[in-house]
Write a structure and sequence with these properties.
Number of strands: 7
Number of helices: 4
Shape: globular
Helix content: 25-40%
InterPro entries: RNaseA, RNaseA-like_dom_sf, RNaseA_domain
Largest sheet: 4 strands, antiparallel
Organism: Python bivittatus
Order of helices and strands: HHHEHEEEEEE
Structural class: alpha+beta
Protein name: Ribonuclease-like
Family: Belongs to the pancreatic ribonuclease family.
Keywords: Disulfide bond, Secreted, Signal
Length: 148
């Protein structure tokens, strides 16, 4: 009996490890999801001292050549964003999913350029977000809208 139990536990551990490997391979091979995370996820929120958060983040994330007009950073863990593609979100319209929960979001709006640098207004608050998901359930697009 003990041998059968050990084999079952070993099989369960193996299956769990295999599913993690497969999930990480899918994640690593999804360039649209990687781009989504680079442009829209900042968790935990980066602490910026002495400078404007948006100006620093937009520069660090490569969205200042040319200056991107609007971009939002969601301060939520990866799994919380992914869950919007299933149980933590509802169908909104077209292929968009609306988060059920309010999330911490910083929206950066271009105010102009100064000395060749993009300058942004920073607005932070709690809001629902709209995203698109690929057929595998990974977030791939953030719908920039401030109506929520």
């Amino acid at each position: 009996m003990l041998l059968v139990l050990k084999k079952r536990v070993s099989l369960m551990v193996f299956l769990l490890m295999a599913s993690c490997v497969i999930a990480s391979q899918v994640f690593s091979q999804n360039p649209r999801h990687k781009k989504f995370l680079k442009q829209h996820q900042d968790f935990p929120q980066t602490k910026v001292v002495g400078h404007d958060y948006c100006t620093v983040m937009m520069l660090q994330r490569g969205m200042t050549r040319p200056c991107k007009n609007t971009n939002s950073f969601v301060h939520a863990p990866h799994n919380q964003l992914k869950d919007i593609c299933s149980w933590a979100g509802t169908h909104y319209r077209r292929a968009l999913r609306l988060s059920k929960a309010l999330l911490s979001v910083t929206t950066c709006n271009l105010q102009g350029t100064a000395q060749g640098q993009c300058q942004y207004w920073t607005q932070t608050g709690q809001q629902q977000i709209l995203i698109s998901c690929d057929p595998s359930g990974w977030p791939v697009h953030f719908e920039e809208s401030n109506f929520m």
